[in-house]
Amino acid sequence: FFFLMIRRPPRSTPLYSSAASDVYKRQVHGTRFFLEHTSHHPPISNFFVQGPQNSYTMYGHHEYRGNVTTNGLENEQHGPNIVEFPDGTTVQFAYPRFKIHGLLMGDRMIYPSGEMVFEDKSEGLRAVIIFNYGKKRGLFSSRKKGTRIDDFDGVIYKVKPDVKSKSVGELKDLKDVDERICSVSGSWLGQLKIGNQVYWDIEKVELPPLNFAKNPLPTDWRFREDLIWLRRGNTEISQEWKVRLEIEQRRDRGTREKFKPDDK
Question: Taking burial as the number of CB atoms within 10 A of a residue's CB, which of 9, 88, 194, 248 is the most buried?
Answer without folding.
Answer: 194
